[in-house]
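Q: My collaborator sent me two sequences in one message, no labels, and asked for predicted structures for both. Can we handle them in order? The first one she listed is below.
A: Yes, handling them in the order given. First sequence, followed by its structure tokens:
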Amino acid sequence: MWFFVEDGRWTAARSCPSALASGTWLLFGAGQRDVVLVRRARVVGQRNLVRVRRVCVLTSSSRILLDAGDPNVTDYISHLKRVIMDERIFINDIIVSHWHHDHVGGVDDVLDAIENGKSCKVWKYPRNDAPEPVLKNATLQELKNGQKFVVDGSTLEVIHTPGHTTDHIVIYLHEDKSLFSADCILGEGSTVFEDLYDYMKSLQLISNINPSVIYPGHGNIINDPKERITMYINHRNQREAHILAALEQHPEETFDEMQLVKLIYKDTPEQLWPAAALNVNVILTKLFKEKKVAKENAGWKYGQTASL
């Protein structure tokens, strides 16, 4: 049975319609299979991306919260406190999927809101490219790849999936073969990433796990994980092929990112070219790591024997 809280009213359903996933904080944990969804939708940015926070909460009194959303979101905190009171539960652990503010920003608010805020542990995989976020009410506990949280017979495994960020993790619920993907795989559109080389490896890792369902950090629940992951991989491979083909056609020339955008993104509105140039840069960086392109001065050229 799934329970939905929306506008202060409780609704029960036998299954979770995907339409209810948009704009939802999903309270999630481990144990029995009753899950409470706390719903709040808002749309941000030109990409019309619905922000979603999912936290699993199940029927035992001990719960695990996955991500805490943005700071100072009073509606979310009010819903969370109501669920805690109505269900008579305790959040003993908060797992943060990565450093972005819409995942870690609300941690202090959550700790202020719960009775056991001083004893609740906050877990996060370490960054290797910048200092960690500073929390007012807790010290971050270091997550490790493969670390398991066992609650009432259910096993949640931490899997390091860099690419979107260096510290990004997903959570795999073994008993249900469910994956909580945070920002690695979205329910709509495609994600952004800092390192495409690492990101593609993370996608392949998740594909090998072969989850039965994916609960993303943004957008609708994904009931066809294999197809969605394959689509992500094929889309990126196609972009790579376009860039390699453009460079191969002019093997003696050097191109910067914007020159390649003008060759490849001819049908894209010009105001979107700067964003496209950023995408081209991360693709070229991946190809450089794979020794498929060479870097010369401020530009790039075709060269399968390029060295790192």
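Q: And the one she listed second?
A: Here it is, processed independently of the first:
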Amino acid sequence: MIETNTKNIVKFDEYCEEKDNQYISKWESIEYFDYLDILNKEVNVLPHNISISTMCTSCKLNTKLNITNIEKYLNLNSDDVLTVKINKERMRTLIINKTKPVRARKNDTKAKNTDISKNHFYNQITVVMRVSYGYTPDLNKEPKINMKLFKNGSVQMSGCKSIKNINIVLNKLIIKLKEIKAKIEDGKIIEKLFIEDLNSINIKDFKIDMINSNYQVNIEIDRNKLYNLLLKKKIKSSYEPCIRACVIIKYTPQNDNLENKEISIFIFQKGNIIITGARSKQHIISSYNYINDILNNHQDDIIKKNDKEEEDIIFNIYDDIINDINIGLLKI
């Protein structure tokens, strides 16, 4: 169970605590429950040069949500809920947008429909949850996870880096949703609940929908040569330099893949490699080994020569041709 240790801590507001005149986050004294079996499901334990760029995951909270109350009454705090958003017009946030505002175009249909969209019924809401806690000079630089909450209790998460981080924000979300707010209406105190059943809320049916990862090899790759090699080996691939600056390989892992899901591997000239669409650590490692075997076994065939090397090769060919002409082996 999630427990809060408040011994020797004096609360000075709902989110922060003070001890010896120092700021102490509420979350520092929380015991986080392991909803996701982190030890067995963690995906960022990979070969040293692979890093996870992002994950998309989903789960269910085992109870229905009140989207209207979440939008109006779920408190923002720099240690947990940073943003509550229905759309751009209906949003509360602590994050300062540093991008320059975009001017509306004269025939912008989105601008015309603004008033209409405000009256639409929404069955989902986005909550941006900070992973860590404590003082930070810039919330934009803090790790955070976007959580799309649906009325039926489903949750979709993006911007994830690890199962551990997902488990942290799910703990925060459940604690925040269990809070009961109240408002005086017509002289009566009316409770504002975020969830239908406080006792039933839990994490069910957690799954990883997509993992994107990347790494780099220490060779410069001739994409045309690589693509021709893949065609000869009848490996499913594509290369359209006018559209994308990479060769794309479609690979189907044999293990842990009942749906025969394809993984996309993007290979760039400078040796940057992106693996996208994986759903498990095994998918990433299998794709990593697959492409590395191709690159290692055919390195001499696909390596891109630098300008000096190509120039030397051309001059050598030229010298051979002139020599053959001089000794009569080649007629012009």
